[in-house]
Amino acid sequence: QVQLVESGGGLVQPGGSLRLSCAASGFTVSSSAMSWYRQAPGKERELVATITPAGRTTNYADSVKGRFTISRDYVKNTIYLQMNNLKPEDTAVYYCKASRFSSWGQGTQVTVSS
Length: 114
Description:
Distance between the termini: 40 Å
Number of helices: 0
Number of strands: 10
Order of helices and strands: EEEEEEEEEE
């Protein structure tokens, strides 16, 4: 059974940093492209970052390019999203997803506010 468990969210001031984690089970993160999405209140879910199965290619939404970094740990079967220089507009629930499967995790709330 495929399961994704996100963690690491919280309240942070503008300019601060957070690292989100997504622990996967039921498959290996090396076998699928993995992505982070986010959904702000009243808005549609949007793609934030993607990493290819081999980890050689990453892609980012223009709004986070240069500030966010997606990575994976094959041993821990986990993907990460390092978020630096956070802005209030980054406030959202963040989700991870494997391209091979339709299931979503429960998400983790990120709030950027002074």
